Amino acid sequence: MKPRVRPLPPDEWDDFTKGHPYNVFATLARHPGLYQGWRGFHGTLQDGTLPARDRELAVLRTAHHCDSAYEWARHARLAREAGLTEQEVELVRRPDALWSVEDQLVLQVADDLYYAGDLTDATWAALCDRYDEAGRIELVMLVAHHGMLALVLRTLRIRPDD
């Protein structure tokens, strides 16, 4: 599909976008004020306090639920860099796959938020046992953010990067 908003041409990129030449950045840069604020928020989540494995499991499950080819492609690579095997990356798509208790909790958070827009009390209690308060907030914000981003990517028809 043709993008509804064309990415900025490289000669109009700011220094950040030059260092991160992805279609999502080049497209959202067409709204400079929003782009700068979003970049800070997105970066805080990407470089947050959660273990990289947990972060990438949550993002991949969200990308799967939202049918976001862009986020899946980008975060499958980041997941492998975070230590997930190729088989684990593909298993994220399967609700019946067997995972460790820790991994299953992260996937359950993404599932609960996608299907119910909330966490069950049991999921919340398990989160309280595993993460501190900041970690719980971060995980919920991470999943919510990537769900929102999937809608933006799909609506603006932002193409996956080569």
Provide structural commentary.
The chain is built from 9 helices and no strands. By secondary structure, the chain is mostly helical. It has a domain at about 50-155: AhpD-like (Up-down Bundle), CATH 1.20.1290. The longest helix is centred in the last third of the chain and has 24 residues, at about 135-155.
Beta-strand residue percentage: under 5%
Question: What about the largest sheet?
Answer: none
Shape: globular
CATH architecture of the domain at 52-156: Up-down Bundle
Number of helices: 9
Secondary structure: helix percent: 55-70%
Question: Which terms summarize this structure?
Answer:
9 helices, mainly alpha, AhpD-like, 162 residues
Write the layout of secondary structure elements.
Layout: H1 15-19, H2 23-28, H3 32-46, H4 52-65, H5 69-81, H6 86-91, H7 101-116, H8 121-130, H9 133-156
Helix pairs in contact: 4-5, 4-7, 4-9, 7-8, 7-9
Summarize the structure.
The chain has 162 residues and is mostly helical. The protein has a domain at 52-156: AhpD-like.
